[in-house]
Design a protein that fits this description.
Blueprint: H1 2-7, E1 12-14, E2 24-25, E3 37-39, H2 40-46, H3 48-61, H4 71-81, H5 87-92, H6 95-112, E4 117-118, H7 119-137, H8 145-153, E5 167-170, E6 180-189, E7 193-202, E8 208-219, H9 221-237, E9 243-248, H10 251-257, H11 269-277, E10 283-288, H12 295-305, E11 311-313, H13 321-331, E12 336-339
Parallel strand pairs: 6-9, 9-10
Antiparallel strand pairs: 1-3, 2-4, 5-12, 6-7, 7-8, 8-11
């Protein structure tokens, strides 16, 4: 019954430490009692430590701060202030994602490494992220006076900013109701080298249906990508469901599976052929996603390629902590920056 209850509460996450109201958490003190569930709004929005972080950057960027806002409301407010026409406003849309990521890292370091969690440390980390991003996407010679003042407030000297590189925002999107989405990834260390693949299947709320990672031994990257897709679709077919969207960060594999290539390399021909056969019994669609939007799959692929045992997960609480974090940020609509 407890397990079922947790699956019906996607807004909660498991933590082993009791909540604290101190502005700085002692490395020695526990944060949640074992078995207690921590509300994600407390963790990312309402806790005293994170309130100080949000207030700090809200004042700098002129975004209205309301203490009662949920995580989703706060994300939507910041994103609504973003604009491609005003240079620093491009940065505004990325701020909540950076803040949430650093809060999550700081929370895990406090929990698993005994490091103190404090607002000042998180603010410093976020400022460094924004410094690096701003110097990539903002050109110093085109900044207005207001832009320049804002950049100085987060310690970004004009002399360090360079002309912008090509960049785009990449976001993992939840599937429509009635569909599931399967994200797959494969990798090979050395190409050929020690290889692995993984996949994660989620519903229209972003909730986990299943995830897996497997070792493939010594092989090529393309073979690992194709095998990961085949493993994921095979696992999905056993659920008795029919409609699924399959995303891969390998453009070659995504196009080959969708039958958009006349020629398929011989070393993945059988795997691609088997994947296409599933289209006779399943409502399958295939698409390409950039690696920045495939972060959950990428995290599990590293486990597989590093020689960890094969595993299959049906509960998000069984996933490694870093993978849980990536899953949670996808659910919150994390916007990722891709630079080329």
């Amino acid at each position: 019954m407890q397990r079922v209850s947790r699956r019906l509460q996607p807004h909660r996450i498991v933590s082993d430490q009791p909540a604290t109201t101190d502005t700085e958490q002692s490395a020695a003190s526990p944060v949640l009692a074992i078995g207690v569930e921590e509300d994600q709004n407390h963790l990312f929005s309402h806790g005293m430590i994170v309130v100080s972080v949000w207030e700090h950057f809200s004042n700098i960027f002129g975004v209205n701060y309301l203490s009662s806002q949920s995580v989703l409301q706060r994300f939507n407010l910041w994103i609504s202030k973003a604009s491609k026409k005003i240079r620093v406003s491009r940065l505004v849309g990325l701020v909540p994602s950076v803040i949430s990521w650093e809060i999550w890292l700081s929370r895990n370091q406090a929990r698993f490494e005994g490091r103190a969690m404090s607002a000042s440390k998180i603010i410093s980390k976020v400022a460094q992220w924004l410094h690096d991003i701003a110097c990539t996407i903002l050109g110093e010679d085109r900044n207005s006076l207001a832009d320049s003042i804002t950049l100085q407030l987060i310690n970004i000297p004009k002399a360090e900013c360079h002309l912008p590189r090509n960049h785009s925002i990449v976001t993992w999107l939840k599937p429509l109701r009635g569909f599931l989405k399967l994200n797959v990834d494969g990798s090979s260390r050395g190409n050929p080298g020690l290889s692995g693949g993984r996949g994660v299947c989620r519903d229209h709320h972003g909730n986990l249906i299943f995830a897996f990672h497997r070792n493939y031994g010594l092989t090529l990257n393309t073979i690992a990508e194709a095998q990961a897709m085949l493993n994921g679709i095979t696992s999905y077919s056993k659920l008795g469901l029919r409609s699924i969207i399959v995303e891969s960060d390998s453009l070659t594999i995504a196009k080959a599976a969708a039958d958009r290539y006349d020629f398929v390399p011989w070393n993945i021909w059988y795997k691609i052929g088997t994947i296409r056969e599933f289209r006779r019994s399943l409502n399958l669609s295939f698409s390409h996603i950039f690696r920045e939007g495939n972060s959950v799959a990428d995290a599990l692929t590293r486990l597989a390629s590093e020689g960890n045992p094969n595993n299959f997960f049906v509960s998000k609480y069984a996933l490694p902590v870093k993978v849980q974090g990536a899953l949670l940020l996808d659910q919150a609509g994390l916007r990722n920056l891709q630079c080329t």
